[in-house]
Specification:
The protein is of the alpha+beta class. It has two domains: 133 residues, Diaminopimelate Epimerase, Chain A, domain 1 (Roll); 142 residues, Diaminopimelate Epimerase, Chain A, domain 1, CATH 3.10.310. The chain is built from five helices and 19 strands. The strands form two sheets. The protein has a 17-stranded mixed beta sheet that branches. The protein has a two-stranded antiparallel ribbon with strand order 9-10. The longest helix is centred in the N-terminal third of the chain and has 15 residues. The chain is globular. The mean pLDDT is 95.
Length: 283
């Protein structure tokens, strides 16, 4: 069975999008990893499957490149909202159902899509952490005790777990080395997305991200949201902040009601069909 797909990205955080609204699509972990391979498959950070919803305009199912299912993806939410708007032939408001809840998206004009990512959750059980802790300052470090490479993260859940480390120089952090170590730290029972954030001023932050199950990505929408929340909680940034990732800039606002609004661009790369041989080879 051939599977049509759309390749899209938000600031380089890229997705293969499958439409399962008319015909069910079920790929196991091995098949997902085969499609994710950037040399022998299509390549992606996340696989997005569109399904029918009785609560919203569409349901968005998300799998990381390692085949694991996750609840939230901010950049993918913008891409899916754009697709729904195109189908309708009009701009406006789109509601997307995810495992993390309902996300309201709107056309922000000038090629931008704004998504209400819902409320940031700050309790240690919500992250979740393996033990009770103050999520503003979590006792986690990597490297020598006398001079850790990273330490003292602020943890936030945006429907998925995030640990934000504030550093003097984000570029100097060996993220490819410490990222997987921290992702699998025992305090994170569901693993965690690891961010290193350099505050430029109260309205601007430089951010690099190690995504659980995907590795270093050019952009991570939920990590940008978590960083905006963490920066304000620490007294380092304002509620509105521009987050500069490897792939570009996202505008983040942590509103007084606890909801986080993320605004940024999207792009369609190409369309194609997944060959049955690719899926069968992974079986």
């Amino acid at each position: 069975m051939q599977l049509p797909f759309i390749k899209m990205h938000g600031l380089g955080n890229d997705f293969v999008i499958l439409d399962a609204r008319e015909r069910p699509v079920a790929l196991d972990r091995a098949a997902i990893r085969a499609v994710a391979d950037r040399r022998t498959g299509v390549g992606f950070d996340q696989l997005i499957t569109l399904e029918r919803s009785d609560k919203a305009d569409i349901f968005m199912r998300i799998h990381n490149a390692d085949g694991g299912e996750v609840a939230a993806c901010g950049n993918a939410s913008r891409c899916v909202a754009e697709l729904v708007m195109r189908e309708r032939g009009r701009r406006g408001r789109v509601v997307i159902e995810t495992l993390a809840g309902l996300l309201e998206s709107r056309d922000a004009e000038a090629g931008m899509i704004a998504v209400d990512m819902g409320e940031a959750k700050l309790g240690w059980r919500d992250i979740p952490l393996a033990r009770e802790a103050d999520t503003l300052h979590v006792d986690v470090a990597v490297g020598p005790a006398s001079a850790p490479v990273l330490a003292d993260p602020c943890c936030v859940s945006m429907g998925n777990p995030h640990a934000v480390f504030f550093v003097a120089d984000a570029e100097a952090v060996p993220l490819a080395t410490v990222g997987p170590m921290l992702e699998h730290h025992p305090i994170f029972p569901e693993r965690a997305n690891i961010s290193v954030a350099q505050v430029i001023d109260r309205g601007h932050v430089r951010l690099r991200v190690w995504e659980r199950g995907a590795g270093i990505t050019s952009a991570c929408g939920t990590a940008a949201c978590a960083t905006g929340v963490a920066g304000f909680r620490r007294g380092l940034t304002d509620r509105k902040v521009e987050i500069r990732l490897d792939g570009g800039v996202l505008a983040i606002e942590w509103r007084e009601d606890g909801h986080v609004i993320m605004t940024g661009p999207i792009a369609e790369s190409f369309r194609g069909v997944l060959s049955p041989s690719l899926i069968e080879a992974a079986a």
